[in-house]
Here is the input.
Amino acid sequence: MSTPTTSTLPHLGTAQLDAVAATGAAVPGYDRAAVTPGIVHIGVGGFHRAHQAMYLDRLMNQGQALDWGIVGLGVMPSDVRMRDALAGQDHLYTLTTKAPDGIEDARVIGSIIDYVFAPDDPAAAVNLLADPQIRIVSLTVTEGGYNIDHVTGEFLHTSEHIAHDRAELQAGRHSDLRTFFGLVTAALAVRRAAGVPPFTVMSCDNIQGNGEVAHRTFLAFAASVDEELATWVEGNVAFPNSMVDRITPETTDADRADVADHGYTDAWPVVSEDFTQWVLEDRFTAGRPLYEEVGVEVVEDVVPYELMKLRLLNASHQGLCYFGHLAGHRMVHDVMADPRFARFLLAYMENEATPTLRPLPGVDLDAYRHTLISRFGNVAVKDTVARLCAESSDRIPRWLLPVVRENLAAGRPVDLSAAIVASWARYAEGTDEQGAPITVVDRMADRLMASASHNHEDALAFLRDREVFGDLVDSPDFTAAYTRTLASLHTDGAEATLDMLLES
Here is the structure.
């Protein structure tokens, strides 16, 4: 008997849920026809679907929050792929979590009920956001999506699309808006004019003080359009902070093939680790789902938790990816199979990151640090080094450099943090230790690589970009550690450099 090919298998959709359930995958236990929209999410990708949408699906499976269905909103041209993938399967998708011990859990998530691609009809997208049913607008737009200057933290008013949207809104037009700033601000203006209460803007991005960043940037844009509107936003719209955590690699064809083993096809399944965490500030404009009933930590102050995550987990990702790539590794679990990487990351976390954290009563930081090492080494997740190396000009300034600056100000060591920056500089040269080309994925790739090309004749060339590094090039303590590591990477390679760092 021949095995069915993927092309002969039924596609995931509402009509197939009973058959999918028979394969052992969990399916929504609620009537999706009864779910009504309450949230618009901008930036639907793997992480949102493995995290926020998953928590809401849990609530719905308990018979709650059926009036909080998610409508995805795509703004970037590339978002058309997600629109089409979800539309073809009734906005259902498969989430498979993989534990380090090999246990897998597959379930179909049903909390996303629609998807709108804003470039098709920006005015319709504004109408969606202005609908009184929508009480939360959530965001995963990446670190670079907030359009802020890395050094000053100020909103960049002069970027082309921002300037375009400002002019559109000042002219009273919604038909050609290009940014989520323009769309959301237009909808808030419509709600204000109609006397409709505003929605909460809930950032779920890996940024320290993500709610405050969203608050500052949206307010700056609104003020540039209409000062009275900005005053209303300031007084009426909530921007809660949150800390989110779940390692979610990019979906591969192998992941799609794994889903096909269950007897159906899914255009864009999601795979993640089994660990998940969400800490959320309890500050909302127009209510919220009862997230705390499905494991979300709803708190008054998120800052200590987000610092723990960003400076331990996220900065450690940068600590392993450049050294790991230079050493010839392409999968994160292969990097972590080398004990020197675990020792290096633990040393960074214990000696440099942890002293910059705020008090966390009841949290065992030593256990958390070692849990991270275990998570990074999860073979089943198949996370790639390339994913962690991407968009470093957004990540390093937000996750690692605050650690550097706090330690310098306190007179504490920065040797290992400086080594991570040096490994980025070596990576940005564009060739690995075997002479193979490195594809640097970064919005500033050309500029970074141009700076890195001078590393040999000027050891501080990469650091001289003050838009990225501020005044760190002026710090003797930092530059001494940085140049020592960069020289070792050039002469001895990544593995020997790690040995040198660990010995010292």
